[in-house]
Structures are given as structure tokens and as C-alpha cells.
Design a protein that fits this description.
Helix content: 25-40%
Strand content: 25-35%
Strand order of the largest sheet: 5-4-1-2-3-7-6
Largest sheet: 7 strands, antiparallel
Distance between the termini: 121 Å
Order of helices and strands: HHEEEEEEEEEEEEEH
Number of domains: 3
Number of strands: 13
Shape: rod-shaped
Number of helices: 3
Length: about 280
């Protein structure tokens, strides 16, 4: 049966409307897809940006925590040193100073004599009196842990009675103060091995500075800290835990008249000895 004209027009119009609807719907869906995709990308970028920002904040926080921890450690160490100095200054309590210093002091033992020495560089250079080594064929250093270590003689300065030795290993060293800053009356301690009594400590004050020694040179600190055989070569320590002299001798038959070579002369003597074999300077 042949369709009439108005039927054809109706069908054609309906078909056109369907096609138009499909086209419009497709355009709408495409636009919605594009918009959704753009939003998704924007959200992804925002998430990535937030992740990056959060990571930066976490890194910054971690860095700040590490820095804070290091600062607290430094403050704690500084506070401990200041408290030790305060105790040493105010109440004659050198216990904190002694605790820090003892690991850098050694007993010097030879096949003929015994004395004391102290470490002046972290790689094991130490000083003692040259007369402690007089006539010795072998030298040993005994640390505060009672470990015996063979010591090699680098050289000695007969004028100032200073000997430089070297032991193997890494150690805590003592700082040499500027002996020009030493004041008469300031409190000091002497550490040594009098009569074989290892790591004995005696306390006193600086009685005078720039005293003349047996060599005729005005390079010695006079102290009333007790010095006995075995103290030779040990450090004379101030309230900051620094070496102001090396205990050298006392006047025979006298009490409270000990003498220590001033630290500036120790430094000068050590550098002369060290430079003779290496052409370099050990102490600044």
C-alpha cells in the first residue's frame, strides 16, 4: 500500500527530529565528557599540587626537627660545660672538668721510669717531659681504660724539657689555653701519677706566672697544687678544662712550690719538634 503524501511528511519530520535529537544528545554527551575530563584533569593537578606541597611541608618539618635536635644537643653540651665551669669557679668542685679531662691523660711508663702525659691531637700525638724518657729503650702509654699502647718518640726539646710522642688510634685531645691570660690566684688542678698512683688529682691556685726555671727562662707557672714524682709531664688544668701548663718540677724539700711550663711555650716547643720531621705545624 502506497503511503500518502502527508504520511511521508510526518514520517520524514519524525525521522529528522530523531536525528536532530541524537545529534544534540551526542553533542551534549561529548560536551559533558569533555567537561568531566577537564574537571578530572584539574582535580588530578590539584591533588598532585597538594601532594607536592604536603611533601615540601613534611620535608621542611623533618629538617626543622633535625635542626632542633642538633641545637638541643649543642645547648645541652654547652650547658654542661658552663655548669662545670660554674662549679669549678664557685665551689672548688672540679668533678665535671676532671670527668672530661681524664680520658685525654695517660700514664707514661718506660723500662726505667714512670711519668704522665696528655694527648694534644685527635690522631694520637701526646706530650710529656723529656726527662721522663731519659735512658729508656721502650715507651708505653696507659690510658684511663688501663689499655697499654706502644708509643713512638717523635723528638724532644732539651731546653724546655718537652718530648713529643705518637700512639696509634683516635682520641679526645686537650686544648692548650693562651698562657698570657693566666691570672694569679685562679684555681687549677694537676693530674698525674704521683708515686705510681694513677690519675691522681691535686688542687691549688696559680701562685705566680713567668717564673724562671732551671733553664733560666721565665716561662713557668708557679702553683701550690701538690706535685710529686710521677706528676712530671702531666697537665695543669684551668676551670675551663684547658691546659695552661705541663707540670715540670718542684723545689726540693719544699711544699706547695711546683712549677709548670706555660702552655704557649709547650705549643712553641711541640711545633719545633714536629716541624723538624714533617716540615709542618701541629698546633695552631
Amino acid at each position: 500500500m502506497e503511503l500518502k503524501r502527508h504520511h511521508k511528511i510526518f514520517i520524514g519530520s519524525f525521522t529528522s527530529l530523531v536525528i536532530i535529537y541524537m545529534i544534540i544528545n551526542s553533542l551534549f554527551l561529548y560536551t559533558l565528557f569533555v567537561k568531566t575530563n577537564i574537571n578530572f584533569n584539574n582535580i588530578s593537578q590539584e591533588i598532585q599540587s597538594m601532594k607536592t606541597e604536603n611533601q615540601l611541608k613534611i620535608n621542611e618539618l623533618t629538617s626543622n626537627l633535625i635542626q632542633t635536635k642538633e641545637t638541643l644537643i649543642m645547648l645541652n653540651s654547652s650547658l654542661k660545660n658552663e655548669l662545670n665551669e660554674l662549679k669549678a669557679s664557685a665551689s672548688s668542685d672540679f668533678s665535671g672538668i676532671i670527668e672530661n679531662v681524664i680520658p685525654s691523660v695517660v700514664t707514661i711508663r718506660t723500662d726505667v721510669a714512670q711519668g704522665t702525659g696528655f694527648i694534644i691531637s685527635d690522631d694520637g700525638y701526646l706530650v710529656t717531659n723529656a726527662h721522663v724518657l731519659n735512658g729508656a729503650r721502650e715507651v708505653f702509654a696507659i690510658n684511663s681504660n688501663q689499655k697499654t699502647i706502644s708509643a713512638n718518640l717523635i723528638g724532644y726539646d732539651a731546653t724546655y724539657d718537652v718530648a713529643l710522642l705518637k700512639i696509634q688510634g683516635n682520641y679526645l685531645s686537650l686544648e692548650l689555653a693562651d698562657s698570657n691570660d693566666v691570672q694569679v690566684g685562679e684555681k687549677v688542678i694537676a693530674i698525674g701519677n704521683p708515686l705510681g698512683l694513677q690519675f691522681s688529682v691535686s688542687e691549688g691556685i696559680v701562685s705566680a706566672v713567668h717564673r724562671a726555671g732551671t733553664n733560666g727562662i721565665q716561662a713557668y707557672i708557679q702553683t701550690d697544687a701538690a706535685l710529686n714524682p710521677g706528676n712530671s709531664g702531666g697537665p695543669l688544668i684551668n676551670k675551663e678544662g684547658e691546659v695552661i701548663g705541663i707540670n715540670n718540677f718542684k723545689l726540693g724539700g719544699s711544699e706547695s712550690l711546683g712549677f709548670a711550663l706555660e702552655s704557649n711555650y709547650i705549643k712553641r716547643s711541640v711545633n719545633v719538634i714536629y716541624k723538624a720531621s714533617t716540615n709542618q705545624t701541629l698546633l695552631q
